[in-house]
Design goal:
Strand content of chain B: 15-25%
CATH topology of the largest domain in chain B: Phosphoribosyl-aminoimidazole Synthetase, Chain A, domain 2
Structural class of chain A: alpha/beta
Order of helices and strands of chain B: HEEEHEHEEEHHEHEHEHEEE
Low-confidence stretches of chain A: 374-385
Strand order of the largest sheet of chain B: 8-10-7-11-9-12-13
Distance between the termini of chain B: 57 Å
Number of strands of chain B: 13
Strand content of chain A: 15-25%
Radius of gyration of chain B: 22 Å
Shape of chain B: globular
Helix content of chain B: 25-40%
Number of helices of chain B: 8
Largest sheet of chain B: 7 strands, mixed
Mean pLDDT of chain A: 90
Distance between the termini of chain A: 25 Å
Largest interface: A-B, 40 and 33 residues
Number of strands of chain A: 11
CATH class of the largest domain in chain A: Alpha Beta
Radius of gyration of chain A: 21 Å
Shape of chain A: globular
Strand order of the largest sheet of chain A: 2-1-7-8-9
Number of domains of chain A: 2
CATH architecture of the largest domain in chain A: 3-Layer(aba) Sandwich
Order of helices and strands of chain A: HEHEHEHEHEHEHHEHHEHEHEEHHH
Largest sheet of chain A: 5 strands, parallel
CATH superfamily of the largest domain in chain A: HypD, alpha/beta domain 2
Helix content of chain A: 25-40%
Structural class of chain B: alpha+beta
CATH class of the largest domain in chain B: Alpha Beta
Oligomer: heterodimer
Number of domains of chain B: 2
Low-confidence stretches of chain B: none
CATH superfamily of the largest domain in chain B: PurM-like C-terminal domain
Chain lengths: 385, 352
């Protein structure tokens, strides 16, 4: 596969790994948080953690859109599908997020709710137009990457007056979450979460640009390297962070220059601000209420806002008592520190949201990394070829 | 007095549809069986015209029996349809014990309103697949359910075969140090079916690999001085290579180490998977097998596989390791290591 294989090349990877190993200073700590689930996935899937020196530690951040959805939000969607008879459309992974009373959207579907998995927001609007007799609701989730497509269908629904369609908006904002982590007691006062730099988001930055991260570099003195989701991008991003730490710098650098510009996609930003406005506060799973960290639909589009249309009221629901998703999302704990991990909580029976999507820290570690807890097979001792 | 000669109007296979009478056991049922199923599948056992077929016993060896329900959607896909798939699927299940398949039985659950033209096309495809495999469909059954209670047609097939005396090939036989082989490129069936799915239609030249593997298995067995050196055979259908290797690792209480660089995947399948967010290791195959054998016969077996049209692109992909945790590990092209876990959840529903 041209264009992709180049970013997964083993020889280049070994070359970068050798550079990282040569440039890290022994005794110095390099703790980097990769914000995005896409990076978490790449690190686990390609075995990147095992290619880094011991004093380079990757901390998984809260950038998995499915993981940060609180139970109460899924409950709203389940209620719409089970009690109000709507056709509820959403992206695949959202279907398995655990909600109240042991339910999830996929379990609600088995109980007779009409829940549809869609590959794009446009498909949800299409379904509404194909079924004018039904109320169709799109459960919209995600960071800045998935927000423009939702804005687009809201604009289209309004223009075409599709009045049996509405959106349950759960879109959240990356910079607000990063600020929240940097302001947390664990990072600021206790120092239990050492963060020496960030691998900045890939696809999010295509939309919002690299400029919003300047604030973190200046205000909090943390280097940020915006990096792509391919494994070589991640390796190169880590090398660039190591170099900044060594030089005592805190700048925003752009490794993903083939797609990201400082100002981002202005057309998408304009569309988003035409349809959405800031929500005063939004509850994140793991982070709690975070002010101005999410979007809501503007009053001009209220007719397509499911929260208005169905008079929905959000109710916060606590996570399972022993579930450590919150601490894991803040980087305070690792998946293996959770008592539920790998016992009652597995990808088949997720208790917490981090075990649902393969971008979640727990699912990624369970699926790709858990052999690291046992003795590694020495590849040279096995005569395979 | 003369009786007027019976005239039965032939079934209209061009424009007709299945109705409830076709499953009621009366004249309409009998006519459908005569004009469609019996004609297409015709063989000496079916001609007995009895609900149960009387079959000669094999002179030696063990009987191997397998059954498989087919609920694939869509019914017709690039490279095949539910008809040939339902023959291949069951033949392969029998063949994975090292057995020679002898007979097939087929049961149809058809939805009221289903087009007879489509049914005919499916039945003829089954008949052709059975003929090509040299395995007769010796008995069958037809039921009709009300509209909305089925999805076109479901086909359940059962196969019986015979394995040579003393030959034990099954998922419990993998031993530490054994070599893992695959018979060809992975993921074509799943991607071909996926390309037709609602809201996902994309143009592709990828066709399903659906095929009967029993002759490949016999070629492999006859190449070995001691067929007992072939320990495990399995076809990586739903859940793909990854899930199948995990099943075997669990059953045999061993680990596996595979090498990503050696796993054959067509570039167009890899590209489609990339686009759809799928991993080819988890995508279904319907004409591929995994073989696990003693290390000293691996080269012989691989060479034999490559002489067969269905094994031309066979590859050695890894080794069976000592791991009480039963992990399947992969050395990635990138240079790292990771677990290749069981498929979790539902990647592609109704793929076979």
């Amino acid at each position: 596969m041209k264009y992709i294989d180049e970013f997964r090349d083993g020889d280049s990877a070994r070359h970068i790994a050798a550079n990282i190993a040569a440039e890290v200073q022994p005794g110095k700590r390099y703790s980097f948080m990769e914000f995005c689930g896409g990076h978490t996935h790449a690190i686990s899937r390609y075995g990147i953690a095992g290619m880094l020196p011991d004093n380079v530690r990757m901390i998984h951040g809260p950038g998995c859109p499915v993981c940060v959805l609180p139970i109460g939000r899924i409950d709203l969607a389940i209620n719409l599908a089970l009690e109000r008879g709507v056709m509820l459309c959403t992206y695949g992974d959202t279907m398995r997020v655990p909600a109240s009373e042991g339910l999830s959207l996929i379990k609600a579907k088995a109980r007779g709710a009409d829940v549809r998995m869609v590959y794009s927001a446009t498909d949800a609007l299409k379904l509404a137009e194909q079924h004018p007799e039904r109320e169709v609701v799109f459960l919209a989730i995600g960071f800045e990457t998935t927000t423009p497509p939702t804005a687009l269908i809201l604009r289209d629904a309004c223009a075409r007056q599709v009045d049996n369609f509405s959106v349950l908006c759960c879109h959240v904002l990356t910079p607000a979450a990063i600020t929240h982590i940097l302001e947390s007691a664990e990072v600021r006062q206790l120092g239990t979460v050492p963060i020496d730099g960030f691998v900045g988001p890939a696809h999010v930055s295509i939309v919002i640009g690299s400029q919003p991260f300047e604030h973190f570099a200046e205000e909090y003195r943390k280097p940020v390297v915006v990096a792509g989701f391919e494994p070589l991008d991640v390796m190169q991003g880590i090398l660039m962070l190591v170099r900044q730490v060594n030089a005592g710098k805190a700048e925003v650098q752009n490794e993903f220059s083939r797609a990201v510009t400082p100002e981002g996609n202005v057309a998408a930003q304009n569309l988003v601000s035409q349809v959405f406005e800031l929500r005063e506060s939004f509850e994140w799973r793991g982070l709690g209420e975070v002010p101005y960290s999410a979007l809501k639909i503007r009053p001009a589009y209220a007719a397509w806002d499911a929260e208005v249309k169905f008079d929905l009221h959000y109710k916060s629901v606590p996570d399972h008592k022993q579930c450590e998703c919150g601490a894991i999302l803040r980087g305070v704990k690792r998946p293996v520190d959770c008592k539920l991990f790998g016992t009652v909580c597995t990808p088949e029976t997720p208790m917490g949201s981090c075990m649902v999507s393969n971008e979640g820290a727990c699912a990624a570690h369970y699926s790709y990394g858990r052999f690291q807890a046992v003795a590694l097979i020495n590849i040279d001792q096995v005569a395979t070829r | 007095m003369s009786t007027k000669k019976n005239y039965v109007r032939p079934i209209d296979f061009k424009h007709g549809h299945i109705d409830m009478t076709h499953g009621a056991g009366g004249r309409a049922s009998a006519q459908l069986i005569d004009e469609l199923f019996a004609r297409a599948f015709d063989n000496e056992y079916l001609r007995q015209g009895h609900d149960g077929a009387s079959l000669p016993l094999p002179t030696e060896g063990r009987l191997v029996m397998a059954t498989d329900g087919h609920v694939i959607s869509p019914l017709f896909f690039p490279g095949g349809d539910i008809g040939c798939l339902s023959v291949h699927g069951t033949l392969n299940d029998v063949a994975m014990s090292g057995a020679v398949p002898l007979y097939l039985a087929a049961s149809f659950i058809i939805e009221e309103g289903f087009a007879l033209a489509d049914l005919k096309r499916i039945v003829e495809s089954m008949a052709q697949a059975a003929r090509e495999a040299g395995v007769p469909i010796v008995t069958g059954d037809t039921k009709v359910v009300e509209k909305g209670k089925g999805d076109g047609v479901f086909i359940s097939t059962t196969g019986v075969g015979v394995a040579a005396p003393g030959l034990w090939i099954d998922g419990r036989q993998a031993r530490i140090g054994d070599v893992v082989l695959v018979s060809g490129t992975l993921g074509e069936h799943g991607v071909a079916v996926m390309s037709l799915r609602e809201s996902l239609e994309f143009e592709t030249a990828i066709i399903s690999d659906t095929a009967a593997l029993h002759t490949l298995v016999q070629t492999m067995l006859s190449a070995l001085p001691d067929p007992g050196a072939l320990h495990v055979l399995r076809d990586p259908t739903r859940g793909g290579l990854a899930t199948t290797l995990n099943e075997i690792a669990k059953q045999s209480q061993v680990g596996m180490l595979i090498h990503e660089a050696d796993i054959p995947v067509l570039p167009q399948v890899a590209a489609a998977c990339e686009l759809l967010g799928l991993d080819p290791l988890y995508v279904a195959n319907e004409g591929k097998l995994i073989a696990i054998c003693a290390p000293d016969v691996a080269d012989t077996l691989l060479a034999a596989m490559r002489t067969h049209p269905l094994g031309q692109h066979a590859q050695r992909i890894g080794t069976v390791t000592n791991d009480p945790n039963g992990f399947v590990q992969m050395a990635t092209c990138f240079g790292g290591r990771r677990v290749v876990d069981w498929l979790s959840g539902e990647q592609l529903p109704r793929i076979c």
